[in-house]
């Protein structure tokens, strides 16, 4: 490692996180799309995560209705099956790049897998059958308007077909094709999720017919994603980007080279990458606290989270599969976890002693969150030991 490389301290990395992820009050976003762009994409596996992640980054606004408007009226945010074969919400400006860099490949793999299962089932279902089933599903949406998967299946007899997967094997199972066909249409960008049935915390979405995103060269799209990711998460490593995207190592390296990443030194003696020229010292923002939901991008943006998370706190804050639960932050560092009880009360536990100022700021942020939630109740899809203890 060259001592001439610019040094980015751990404190500066935390300063960057507070300002660039729009968690410091003075840096908060004015729209949900702006909040998403700040971290490139918002995790959307759990419907409530999108709302809570956006809320933490927004100036005071209209509550969940503001984010619902972005998702279902303005459509300035859209859900895509993309990085790591996971659902993310991204701004419509970034969506074509996410689609070309990642979602197209996932969609192609999904189609190959489904066609393989259809062929193995032995009922004569093939690519022509699948194309007709997809066309009929889109026609049903055009006729009915926004519809749930069950409503689409009720209108399309082919989607009520069942197939046997793994025939003759230990994992043999019978499955309906409706979910798989709908997932494929969504992965192809021919349908998108619309308002759910029930409240904003529901995952039972309606679907609407839409047009696929414009085609872009995959390499160009990956370079744009890498450029934006470096700005939001740098200093970071190619291992971090590979983990975050799910791309091959070759694609990661080509994207970083195309983005023109610069190298910097870290305090532990290792090197990392930043956006071109992004090496100036990062001044501290004002002190800030945040209560972030499980899977929030600020906790999930790196494979190595050592600069903002004490390894001793991992067992309490992660589930068995490595999903991060609800977290309490102070000035760019995870210091505890939080939960909402059935009564609506927001409770938390600090795993470190950050001092009185931090405790007061966390208390104020908990009040802000409770007011924003109102009558809504949120239980994370991926529950962690600390969250379960706090609820109990």
TrEMBL record:
This is Winged helix DNA-binding domain-containing protein. It holds the Pfam family AlkZ-like. It comes from Streptomyces goshikiensis. It comes from the Bacteria. Keywords: DNA-binding. GO terms for molecular function: DNA binding. InterPro entries: AlkZ-like.
């Amino acid at each position: 490692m060259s001592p001439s490389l610019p040094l980015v301290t751990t404190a500066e990395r935390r300063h960057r996180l507070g300002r660039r992820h729009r968690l410091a009050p003075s840096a908060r976003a004015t729209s949900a799309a702006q909040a998403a762009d700040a971290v490139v994409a918002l995790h959307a596996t759990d419907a409530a995560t999108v709302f809570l992640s956006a809320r933490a980054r927004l100036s005071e606004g209209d509550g969940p209705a503001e984010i619902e408007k972005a998702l279902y009226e303005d459509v300035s945010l859209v859900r895509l099956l993309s990085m790591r074969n996971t659902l993310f919400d991204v701004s419509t400006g970034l969506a074509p790049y996410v689609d070309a860099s990642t979602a197209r490949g996932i969609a192609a793999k999904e189609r190959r897998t489904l066609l393989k299962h259809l062929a193995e089932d032995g009922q004569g279902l093939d690519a022509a059958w699948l194309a007709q089933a997809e066309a009929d599903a889109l026609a049903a949406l055009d006729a009915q308007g926004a519809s749930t998967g069950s409503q689409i299946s009720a209108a399309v007899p082919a989607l009520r077909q069942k197939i046997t997967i793994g025939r003759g094997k230990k994992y043999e199972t019978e499955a309906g094709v409706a979910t798989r066909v709908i997932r494929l249409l969504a992965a192809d960008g021919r349908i998108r999720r619309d308002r759910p049935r029930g409240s904003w915390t529901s995952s039972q979405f309606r679907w609407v017919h839409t047009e696929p995103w414009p085609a872009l060269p995959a390499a160009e799209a990956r370079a744009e994603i890498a450029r934006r990711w470096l700005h939001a998460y740098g200093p970071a490593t190619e291992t971090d980007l590979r983990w975050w995207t799910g791309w091959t190592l070759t694609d990661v390296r080509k994207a970083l080279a195309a983005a023109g990443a610069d190298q910097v030194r870290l305090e532990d003696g290792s090197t990392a990458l930043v956006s071109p020229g992004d090496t100036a010292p990062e001044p501290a923002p004002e002190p800030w606290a945040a209560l972030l939901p499980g899977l929030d991008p600020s906790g999930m943006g790196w494979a190595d989270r050592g600069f903002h998370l004490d390894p001793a706190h991992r067992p309490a804050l992660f589930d068995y599969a490595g999903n991060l639960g609800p977290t309490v932050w102070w000035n760019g560092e995870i210091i505890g976890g939080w939960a909402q009880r059935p009564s609506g009360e927001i409770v938390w536990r600090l795993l470190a002693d950050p001092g009185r100022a931090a405790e007061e700021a966390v208390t104020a942020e908990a009040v802000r969150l409770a007011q924003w939630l109102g009558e809504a109740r949120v239980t994370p899809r991926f529950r962690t030991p600390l969250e379960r203890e706090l609820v109990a």
